[in-house]
Amino acid sequence: MSMKPLTVLAVLGGLILPGRAVCTNTAEPPRFEVPSPPGSPLVFVVYGDTRFTQRAAVVNTVARRALVEKIASEKPAAILIGGDLVYDGSDPRDYQTYRSETSEWSQEKIPVFPALGNHELKGCATESVCLENWWNAFDALSLRPHRWYSVAIGSNLLALVLDSDAPLRPGSEQRAWFEEQVAGAGEQVKFILIVLHYPPVRDPIYPRMRDEKEIAGYLSRHAKSLRSSVLVVGSHVHNYERYARDGVMYVVSGGGGAKPVPAPRMFGELSHLHSGVNFHYLRLTLFDDRLTCVMVRFEPAKVTGAEAWTEPDRFEIRARN
Q1: Long-range contacts from 52-55, C-beta under 8 angstroms, 24+ separation
Q2: DSSP code of 100?
Q3: Mean pLDDT throughout 149-159?
Q4: Tell me, what's the pLDDT at 207?
């Protein structure tokens, strides 16, 4: 059954105002729309592992807040967050920290689309309690009872926001939905962006978490036959990595503020960054025939001014049709 796309109007702390997004078919995961601005390319942001919380030991709050402020200054058409938005999904106070620290996004009316990460499910005896906190934080998106959904960005990009803690193996509900979305993407869809928490391709020093490698396996078999070019952005690893596999670009963007972890950058990693700590976000610019991506990096030792910001990696994905 098809579902009518939805239009996002404005955001206040994750809540959409003045209108509310209402799913026309609650039996299916919703689809939202982010319209193209007239006369200019569409710019949006993707990143993850922000860990909004008051627990100072688990996050660099200076970096987290600097990234939020810098993103607001970009005035992106949308922000997609690849999980671990908060540190403890059982604690509503972490979501309140998110709302208070991102008030500037609300003032700029920037829609925010979150993916579930393992920290959204942290601290709950049953997942349902944590899921209620997540659904409540984004109540105006009307996601309940769904854990994955899609966003049409501009006229030619389809974003699939997955839950990598839920099954992704063949025969699972999410896998069936994912394959249906990929196969059913219209001729106008030149780019498919897949956002999930556990990155399907990353340095093998970090073990597989759930079924995320199922996505890489599926794309290895099918990506070259698709009309659309594919970009996959995962988080979870608190650093930055980039790989190309079987015609698909894979990025690890986990530098939203969580305590950094090493990235050895071996096994075909393409960014060749020499910096060990990489707080950052991805700025994506959507054109008719290409999608450009820039890593915008914050250096916390410099804190303020232009010297605190660099753009050490960038790449371009061309449309196939």
Answers
A1: 52/85, 52/86, 52/87, 52/94, 52/95, 52/97, 52/98, 52/101, 53/86, 53/87, 53/88, 53/91, 53/93, 53/94, 53/97, 54/93, 54/94, 54/97, 55/87, 55/88
A2: H
A3: 98
A4: 66
Residue 157 · residue 189 · CB < 8 Å: yes
User: DSSP per residue over 173-227, as a string?
Assistant: HHHHHHHHHHHT--TT--EEEEE-SS-SS--TTSPP-SSTHHHHHHHHHHGGGSS
Q: Which fold has domain 6-318?
A: Purple Acid Phosphatase; chain A, domain 2 (3.60.21)
Residue 174: phi and psi, rounded to 5, are: -70, -40
Given a cut of 70, is residue 15 above it in pLDDT?
no
Cis peptide before 260 (omega within 30 of 0): no
CA dist 166 → 106, 121, 173, 193, 198 (Å): 30, 11, 9, 19, 11
The pair of three-digit structure tokens given for residue 306, joined into one six-digit string = 């232009």
Backbone φ and ψ for 36, nearest 5 degrees, come out as -75, 140
- Retrieve residue 56's tokens: 């100072």
CA nearest to 260, candidates 229, 301, 204, 217: 301
Q: Dump pLDDT digits (tens) for 17-53.
A: 322 333 445 689 999 999 999 889 999 999 999 999 9
